[in-house]
Amino acid sequence: MLSDVQKSLLKELTGRDSFADGAFNIRANGQSAGRNSTDSIRIEPKKEGAGLDIYIAPGTRRDHVHIPVVMTDSGLKETVFNDFHVGEGADVEIVAGCGIHNCGCDDSEHDGIHRFFIAKGARVKYVEKHIGGGDGVGKRILNPVTEVEMAEGSSMEMEMAQIKGVDDTDRKTTAHLAAGARLVVRERLMTDGTQRALSTYVVSLDGPGSSADIVSRGVSRGKSFQRLDLRIAGNAPCKGHTECDSIIMDDSRILAVPALEANDVDASLVHEAAIGRIAGEQLIKLMTLGLTQAEAEERIINGFLA
Amino acid sequence: MLEIDNLSFDVETEAGPKSVLRGVSLSLAPGRLVVVTGPNGSGKSTLARLIAGIETPTSGRILLDGRDITGLSITERAKAGIGFAFQQPVRFKGLKVIDLLRIAAGRNLTIHEACDHLAAVGLCAQDYVRREVNSSLSGGELKRIEIATIFAKASKVSIFDEPEAGIDLWSFQNLIQAFKEMRQAVADASLMIISHQERILAIADEIVVIKGGSIERQGPKDEILPSLIGTEMAMGGCPRGLPWRKADA
Ligand SMILES: Nc1ncnc2c1ncn2[C@@H]1O[C@H](COP(=O)(O)OP(=O)(O)O)[C@@H](O)[C@H]1O
Ligand SMILES: [Mg+2]
């Protein structure tokens, strides 16, 4: 049975109250708390070690699978390996994410290693949310690793969001794209207090006509620190775009490390980066519409991270 | 009733102290429309910014319905009933047109209500209501959205700083119509429009001419307008010949 705290974390992660049908696996405090496979999506626990193999049948139409993780016991540390095998021409939405509620004094840590093997022409939408809560002094730590292999003509859209609550995160995402494959990433980060968030993307555009568009938006507050490391290598005629756009507040720090590597004369790569405080004129505009300065800041940040 | 009483604003510049506004007094009665005109750099926008609370006067007072609001913050003045459409509107990444309209109205406007405000400024509402107020909008589009938010705010006193800038001829006609409708829709609303446009001057009850930081002349439209026709303070027809002329800096 899931506790109320676990249920509310699940709701925040997935937008759902309950899981009954469709493909899903719920992991709570290191144990499976419910699993269901369907005709087109099969979920199997790994024979060795923690984790799952998730098979999405070729030609699957507009289906989805949820694999949320919740941790409410203080002091738990786990590493989980999930492999997604997406069959040719399948079209699937995968909703992952981890919620840690730590009321204790020991650190809780979830390190999820997700590998995607995306076959020809398949389309994947991957949504990952990270949330942290609880008032214990123990830290909430998340170190996700995402590795993506994209075959010809496949596409993947990733939405990653980590809004406050996670004390320490070191996210690493790598992708290899074959001919005509397309990767779109939308990352949203907000750090506060003494939180630290590191996010690294290494994307290799290996096949002709492959493309990647990676946009990371961040807000850092308090004494927090963010490092955004966006790298694209163009190894064939391809198009790559990275953008990192940050609002810095209070005594926080942000380091943006863009890198573009062109190994082909027809690789077209663009990087944009901007870091700055909230523009004074934006605050003034919203104040002339009746918001207080604090309300105006909140609206601007929420819009920016929406 | 908005009363400006002997307002002055001095600033420190590299070249030494500068007096931007000097002893400006005027009053704007409920239901009236005053157009403030004058050459570029004469202090018109500064007067608007002082009324909205963005700048603090060196001396003088601002009264709204008899209450001294000179010491109030921007937010407090907005709540007390001052609306201000900027000469140069602000862009926001992530905020949508509907969000701004709702903030301005101070309530959860329906899409239908929001569309009415956009239609009033000649924007095809469906295309715009969910657009982000970001750099994808042209200067003219942004300007019209700015005006629509002040319509949505429906303040006791609404100030529009050069609303015609960047607006093409067709919607210029609509804009004048929209100002007329606003006067009818919001009971006792007072409007202050900063403009060089003859056709906007023509709908004024009163005209105030500012030069070099002081009021040069003020009075009923019929008294002031004839002397302005043909000067840079009352431009006729299409502003400076080009409908897509950018807003003055
Ligand atoms: N805070 C300020 N600091 C320095 N100069 C200012 C300031 N505010 C206004 N000014 C100057 O005062 C003059 C009047 O400006 P403004 O009110 O924008 O004129 P207008 O709107 O009539 O064109 C300009 O020369 C402007 O540069
Ligand atoms: Mg001006």
Please write out the topology.
The complex is a heterodimer of chains A (306) and B (249).
Chain A: H1 4-14, E1 23-28, E2 31-36, E3 41-45, E4 51-56, E5 63-71, E6 77-86, E7 91-101, E8 108-118, E9 123-133, E10 140-142, E11 145-150, E12 155-163, E13 168-177, E14 182-191, E15 196-205, E16 210-220, E17 225-234, E18 238-248, E19 253-262, E20 267-276, H2 280-288, H3 293-305
Parallel strand pairs in A: 1-5, 4-6, 5-7, 6-8, 7-9, 8-10, 8-11, 9-12, 10-13, 11-13, 12-14, 13-15, 14-16, 15-17, 16-18, 17-19, 18-20
Antiparallel strand pairs in A: 1-2, 3-4
Chain B: E1 2-13, E2 16-28, E3 33-37, H1 44-52, E4 59-64, E5 67-68, H2 74-80, E6 82-85, H3 97-105, H4 111-120, H5 125-128, H6 139-153, E7 157-161, H7 169-185, E8 190-194, H8 198-201, E9 206-211, E10 214-220, H9 221-228
Parallel strand pairs in B: 3-8, 3-9, 6-7, 7-8
Antiparallel strand pairs in B: 1-2, 1-4, 4-5, 9-10
Please give a handful of descriptors for the protein shown.
heterodimer, A: 306 residues, 10-stranded mixed β-sheet, 3 helices, B: 249 residues, alpha/beta, 4-stranded antiparallel β-sheet, globular, binds adenosine-5'-diphosphate
Structural summary, described in words:
The complex is a heterodimer of chains A (306) and B (249). Chain A is 11% helix and 57% strand. Chain A has 306 residues and is mainly beta. Chain A has 2 domains: 1-161, no CATH class; 167-306, no CATH class. Chain A has a 10-stranded mixed β-sheet, covered by helices on one side. In chain A, strands 3, 4, 6, 8, 10, 11, 13, 15, 17 and 19 form a 10-stranded mixed β-sheet that branches. The model of chain A has no long low-confidence stretch (mean pLDDT 94). Chain B is an alpha/beta fold. Chains A and B meet through helix 2 and helix 3 of A and helix 2, strand 6 and helix 3 of B. Bound molecules: adenosine-5'-diphosphate and magnesium ion (MG).
